Amino acid sequence: MTADEPPSLNILGVYSYSSDQASYARFIRELIDFHDPPNFSEEVKDILRNNGRGDEIAPLTAEERQEWEEYLHFYMADAAVVEVLVENPDARFNPRDFAQIDPPTGHSEMAWNEMFLTADGETEIETGYRQTLPVARQYRVVFVIHRWEPSLPLRSSYGEHQAPAVQPLSERLWRLTSYDPPEASARAIQ
């Protein structure tokens, strides 16, 4: 592979959180536990205490845990985790260009929670504040599309792609990926 080769994208898989009910339920519980104030980092707890909000470090009530569960199910039940192999990306490539757009309604779902993995899919590639993409010529990008529609193509920086059938999320992706619900950070410290 050389820099002169054209850019290419290969959709390696489209995965469902909810197709494996046991793993999905465990993941939801872990997300709720993560957002339970007593489990916040000491740094966040100190910020709350220093801002006169120390009383917010109380455990979630059963009702609040139920609200979190409903909230997460709303976003995750029909979501798809998409894994794409990127080769020789050029200046046009932007992972935020991945989207599904329903022409009759104009409704669109954009890439969410983008993360990068090495080309073999085994290790996360960290990018910094100023570095938005990996410098490698080959890597994977993994992201979520909420309200996945299997019949619609996936749009990208390089055009439309037909995605493979949805399958259960692999153990590798359960382990490597995380899910940050929309507005989760604001909700967690309200």
Outline of the structure:
The protein has 190 residues and is α+β, with helices and mostly antiparallel strands. It has helices at residues 21-34, 42-50, 62-76, 171-176, 184-188, and strands at 8-16, 80-87, 99-102, 107-110, 112-117, 124-125, 138-145, 154-156, 159-161, 166-168. The chain is 26% helix and 26% strand.
List the keywords.
190 residues; alpha+beta; 6-stranded mixed β-sheet; two-stranded antiparallel sheet; 10 strands; 26% helix; 26% strand; globular
Description:
With 190 residues, this protein is of the alpha+beta class. The chain has five helices and ten strands; from the N terminus they run E-H-H-H-E-E-E-E-E-E-E-E-E-H-H. The protein has helices at 21-34, 42-50, 62-76, 171-176, 184-188, and strands at 8-16, 80-87, 99-102, 107-110, 112-117, 124-125, 138-145, 154-156, 159-161, 166-168. The strands form three sheets. A six-stranded mixed beta sheet has the order 6-5-7-2-1-10, with no helix packed on it. Strand 3 (99-102) and strand 4 (107-110) form a beta hairpin. The longest helix is centred in the middle third of the chain and has 15 residues, at 62-76. The radius of gyration is 19 Å and the shape is globular. The model is unreliable at 185-190 (pLDDT under 50).
